[in-house]
Structures are given as C-alpha cells and as structure tokens.
Specification:
The protein is of the alpha/beta class and 394 residues long. It has twelve helices and 14 strands. The protein binds 4'-deoxy-4'-aminopyridoxal-5'-phosphate (PMP). Its cofactor is pyridoxal 5'-phosphate.
C-alpha cells in the first residue's frame, strides 16, 4: 500500500517536537519542549461570556458557512491593531486563516515550485520548514547573531541565488532562538529585497509579547514596494485552540490566497472569529496581553538565572526580550539528543535544536520554552537538566 503515497509525502515527517510532546503529556514530566502558552492565563470566563453573547445575538450566523476572507468586524479590528504597530492596511488586505500555520502552508502552495530557493534564518521554525518541504525547495540558511539575520550574509546569498522566491523571517523573539532583528537590519532587508526583487514572508506571532527593551516596528512597516507578506496570530495573545491567524498583504496576493484557501477549508471557523471579536468588544485584550507579558518575563528571568546557576559555564544562550523561547548552545562535543534521552529518564524535556536547521546541523543546540511551566517547576526542571549536562561534560 505504501507505493500509493505521493512521493512528496516521503519528504514530510511528523515533527520531532510533536513526538516529544506526546511523552511530555504525562503530568510528572517537567516540559520545556512545546511552544505552549500558559494555560492558567486563558480568559475562560470572558470567553464563555463572549460565546454566550455571540449565540444570543447572532447564533445562526455564527454557526453558518461564511466568507473565505473572514468576518469583517474582526478584520477591521486587526487593521486597527496593525496600524498601532506601524502597518497601514485595509480589510481588503487582510485574510483570516486557521492559525498562522495555515498562512504558512498557503504561502508554500502559492509560491513554491520544485527546486525553488527560500532564504531563511539559521535555525528557523520547524513547522515552516516542513510546510515548505512538500514542494522540494532548496533552503539557503543565513547565519544569525544576537541582532537576528546577518545582512552581509543575506546579501552574499542573494548574489549567489538571485532567483530566490522569498526570504522567510521571524523578526521578533524568533522561534527557536528568541532573538530579535534590529531596526537597521529590518530596513536593510527591505533594501536588499527591493534590489534583488524577492518577496519577504514575515512570520510574526510573538511581536506583541515583548517584556523588555524597545519595541521595533515589523519588517512590513518598512516595506516600500508591497513585497512583504505579514503573517500573525491570536495564538500567543489569546487562545491557540481557537486557531485564528491572519495574512496582511497587497490585494494582488490576498486574492490568490483566498482562491487557494477555498479549496482547503472554505473559510476559518466563523464561531471562533465572532467570539474573538466579541471578546475584544467586551474586554480589554491589551490588559490581558500585559498580564501575559508580566508572567512570561518572570518565567524567562527565572530560567535565565537557572542557566547561570545550574548549567556548566561553557554553555552559551540567548537572552530574549519577549516571546516564549531561550536557545542554548552546548559545547560542540555534546549531542543534545543524547542529553534529552538522559533528561527524559529524569522526567524533564526540551527540544533538540538540530531539526530547526533545514540542511542539518546544530547537534549541540537545544530550545527551552519558559511559558508553560510555573516558576517552581522551571527551577526544578533546570536543576535536573544541569545535573545531566555536568555528568555528560564530565
Ligand atoms: N510561526 C511560528 C514562528 C510559530 O512559532 C508558530 C507556533 N508555534 C506558528 C507560526 C503557528 O502558530 P498558529 O498556527 O497557532 O498561529
């Protein structure tokens, strides 16, 4: 029966993170593996009130088929929120998607042909690599430092690969590194994209979750020629289970995205869209985001302190100003998969870094998530990882 599968299926494996997440569902496991928001912060009662209001006011409408583009009041609110961070748009430039993951998947469908070149940060978001891999592109990785993708290297790669379709970037508190691209690099990225006539896919799920440093406008803010496709989501500021994301791009692109989305799912869940809009009408989502920021800041601080206290001195790590992740680079002699094996015996988990490099490297790296465990569990889990590292470093 295996011969029946399309050959592209063989390029897609179930993500390593998902496999580890299965193990970490056991309650005794302290998990820094997933990218899960803090469940205790979900505004359950307000969402219940918003759901009741939707059902009372427009029950049939919320349960009926609706337009592919998405619920107009929600798109209008999204335009307002993007304006406040420096993106000018209107509802014709916004398409609501089933999570930003669908926006990434549609981006692959829209642009990629076999053998196309994508430029991305090294490392980058695993589920984007997998979504794009279906089309068998070649991934050109550009090195990063603490200020994000290095522009001299980007320019070198654009010279070598002038046929590049798009640059895929996560500028704010990147997954997996937690690093943020500086303002001047964002401006330079736009200049280079204009010069080499490539698109930029800006995947920005974490921008609103900044808890330190100065806010930097999204890459799309600097866009002069309509070549940035901006993707974001309610997952990290509201509730990922509702599966609400969006794409903001010029109409030329949105029309094509809409046509593709029609054959995928007709439209995004109407009820979820209406609940989210109603929540924002009845409650202050910015106050809610403030709470998320404060909690994540404390958790991140605790985790950073634990690295200093429990990890060997020759371990390097990022210092995020927001988002959900810290990136760790172990001495090159260590394999983080082996470290993980030992850690799982001690009921603590993280994600090895290698899968985040599309062309394979980074065996000594790993990603830690701090949003999903309380401070006591962070301390205990980090102590256990520290013990394993000290044993393996010897
Ligand atoms: N992009 C990045 C960089 C992510 O980290 C995630 C989620 N972890 C997504 C997109 C997808 O998020 P969602 O589909 O929940 O909006």
């Amino acid at each position: 029966m295996h011969s029946k599968f399309a050959s592209r299926v063989n390029r897609v494996k179930s993500s390593e993170t998902r496999e580890i997440l299965k193990v970490t569902e056991r309650p005794e496991v302290i998990s820094f593996a997933g990218g899960l928001p803090a469940p205790e912060l979900f505004p359950i009662q307000p969402i219940q009130a918003a759901s009741n209001a939707v059902l009372e006011e427009n029950g049939a409408g919320s349960l009926q088929y609706s337009t592919t583009e998405g619920y107009i009041p929600l798109r209008t609110v999204i335009c307002g929120r993007m304006k406040s961070i420096g993106i000018e748009s209107d509802i014709n430039k916004v398409l609501i998607t089933s999570g930003s993951q669908q926006a990434i998947d549609l981006t692959g469908r829209l642009f990629l042909e076999e053998g196309d070149t994508i430029i991305c940060e090294s490392p980058t978001y695993l589920a984007a690599i997998n979504a794009f891999k279906i089309y068998n592109p070649s991934f050109v990785e550009v090195e990063m430092d603490q200020d994000g993708m290095i522009m001299e290297e980007l320019e070198d790669q654009l010279k070598k690969h002038p046929e590049t379709k798009f640059i895929y970037t996560i500028p704010d508190f990147q997954n997996p590194t937690g690093r943020t691209m500086s303002r001047s690099r964002r401006e330079r990225m736009i200049e280079l994209a204009n010069q080499y006539d490539v698109l930029i896919v800006e995947d920005n799920p974490y921008g609103a979750v900044r808890f330190a440093g100065e806010a930097i406008p999204p890459v799309k803010h600097f866009d002069t020629e309509g070549r940035v496709i901006y993707i974001s989501t309610f997952s990290k500021i509201f509730a990922p289970g509702l599966r609400l994301g969006w794409i903001c791009a010029d109409e030329l692109f949105i029309e094509k995205y809409v046509a593709l989305k029609q054959s995928v799912d007709l439209h995004t869940d109407s009820f979820a869209q209406m609940i989210t809009f109603k929540y924002m009408e009845l409650y202050d989502i910015d106050a809610h985001i403030e709470t998320i920021r404060a909690v994540y800041k404390d958790r991140c601080d605790v985790m950073l302190r634990c690295i200093d206290e429990f990890f060997p001195a020759n371990v390097a790590h990022s210092v995020p100003e927001g988002g959900l992740f810290i990136w760790v680079e172990l001495p090159k002699s260590l394999d983080s998969r082996k470290v993980l094996e030992e850690c799982l015996k001690n009921h603590v988990a993280f994600v090895p870094g290698a899968p985040f490099f599309p062309n394979g490297k980074g065996n000594h790296t790993l990603r830690l998530n701090y949003s999903n465990m309380n401070e006591d569990r962070i301390v205990e889990g980090m102590r256990r990882i520290g013990e394993v590292l000290r044993q393996q470093i010897g």
